[in-house]
Amino acid sequence: MPLYCFFLLKTALFKQGAKQLYANHLRPFLSRHQARVDQVLGFAYCEVIKLVSSYHAEIKLVKSMVVKITGSAEKLLRGTAESDRSQQHSSAEDPAVPSDTEPDQNHNH
């Protein structure tokens, strides 16, 4: 535990702690184990390719569903915005409060 605290303190004291960690610890580790890391990443890449290939139809279906949903949402939002604009436009043309130029029907002469 004290060694761990010393390590954290040492890296915190440096202004560029991430660079210090990489240069002193991560890069040497990756250099020593480069062949194994490449092997593991190559295997993982192949497995991902197999997975994507086996689920290609499902991925295509999900993609088309997402496109349809976003298209519907876009139309819905556009329609809501247009109806809001038309309501604002009609209320501006047809005010609820009578204007001064209109005769007052409730006023007795």
Q: What does it look like?
A:
0% of the residues are buried. The protein has helices spanning 2-13, 17-32, 34-54, 56-93. It has 109 residues and is an all-alpha fold. Helices cover 80% and strands 0% of the residues. The chain has 2 domains: 1-54, no CATH class; 55-91. It is flat and about 75 Å long.
Provide the helix percentage. Answer: over 70%
Instruction: Tell me what portion of residues adopts beta-strand conformation.
Output: under 5%
SSE-based structural type:
mainly alpha
List low-confidence stretches: none
Number of strands: 0
Question: What's the main sheet like?
Answer: none
Shape: flat
In total, the number of domains comes to 2
Spell the H/E element sequence.
HHHH
Distance between the termini: 97 Å
Q: Give the mean pLDDT.
A: 79
Protein name: HVA22-like protein
Biased composition (Basic and acidic residues): 78-87
Organism: Vigna mungo (Black gram)
Region (Disordered): 78-109
Features:
mainly alpha; 80% helix; 109 residues
How are the elements arranged and paired?
Layout (H helix, E strand, L loop, with lengths): L1 H12 L3 H16 L1 H21 L1 H38 L16
Briefly summarize what is shown.
With 109 residues, the chain is mainly alpha-helical. Helices cover 80% and strands 0% of the residues.
